Amino acid sequence: MRSRNSGARGKRALAVAGLLLGAGCAAATAPTAPDVDEAIALLEAWLIPDPAPEVAGTPDHRGRPRHDPFDLADEIASLDAGEFVVLEGIPEPREPTPLAIHVTGTEVLTVGDEPFVAVHVAAAAGEGDRVAGLFPIEPSPSSAPVATGHAPAGLWVSGAPFFNWSDGGSYRGEGAWRTVAPGAVGDDGYSCAGPTADEAAPHVYPECLALYLGDDSGRHSPIYGFAADGYPVHGPWADLELLARSSWRLRDYDTVGSATGCTEGGRRTCVLADPLDPTAGTVPALSPGPTTADVPPGAFFEDFWFDIGLDDGAPHALDAFNGHSHDEFGYHYHITRIQNGDGSFTDVFPYILGPWFRGELRPGDPHAGGPRLPDGAATSRLPEMVEPPDEPSPPAEPPALCVPRLGICD
Ligand SMILES: [Zn+2]
User: Fold this and answer.
1) Is the C or the N end of the chain the one with fewer CB within 10 Å?
2) Which residue, 111, 138, 165, sits at the end of a domain?
3) CA–CA separation, 263 and 84 (whole Å)
4) Which domain holds residue 279?
5) C-alpha of residue 238 to centroid of ligand 1, in Å
6) Distance 222 CA to ligand 1 centre (A)
């Protein structure tokens, strides 16, 4: 039971990478030496706890030790730099399990000159093993962040994909008011016993995975998955009893004269010229949306704006991408929820990661050619992102967001 580094397996890995990248993209090359320490740290995150039967209905695993039910620790320890490594031996999850899709293996492979972790998954119903994701081992911030778009934005460590805020629709199909995925999965009557529980709500907090991981309010959440740019996605907790805080806020349509509202109270007749900067003002909407009496704020992407004042360096503050950097974690995203007065939770925009990826995407990634954030957009108070306070500039173009079905990708 050691890692196998045979040439045959290396060739298989290359073939898989080539298929995934498709025509016209960077081709897989001969293996070079990945940073083995980085690779090990990344691969360990895919070691999810043993799904004991009581997990499905019992949220109480506080303090449960993390262990290695798949016997991957030895495999990972034997990683050799300069070789492809195929990790095997991940068994079927026990039944019952909330996971219809599951990770069957991981491997490090080199595409171009960059090392990636390839994650293999299979669905429970006899689906063959396939590569579901290629994640940069060394994520790097992008100088021109790309919209999270409609392809899967990443994978949970269960192997199931997750998506961005959008459900692909818009009010009356007119494209002006783009609907966000239903925010509330909620705790009421929600069961993790079904075979596709989390997969049925891929835009928000994956409740069953949280149970699986034993995450609670007692510490900084563990890694729940990885975004396509390679940055990890942690659960909702930034620290003990402290939820990570989205810096995206609802527009105030109802107060006449509010900076984020329109001329008539309660009406959706205008959109923000730049949702990252409300001082840029509003522009008329392509078509009016429903009144706030009919549909309360929060139903549409255009209902939100980024409040840079909330990205204030507090331990739970997040930037426009829904991430931050602290302690030993490096840059990472957080799933965002709020806790209500009765103790229940509500998932809040942008739910998992922001409307844009913070990091560079792999060449060939379905998002890589997508709409980009305008130059100079104020997305964070991180020192390197703060612009010098010079002369006023004209209002920025509204950030483009790709909704292919509506033909507004360019
Ligand atoms: Zn954090």
Assistant:
1) C
2) 138
3) 61
4) 253-304
5) 5
6) 9
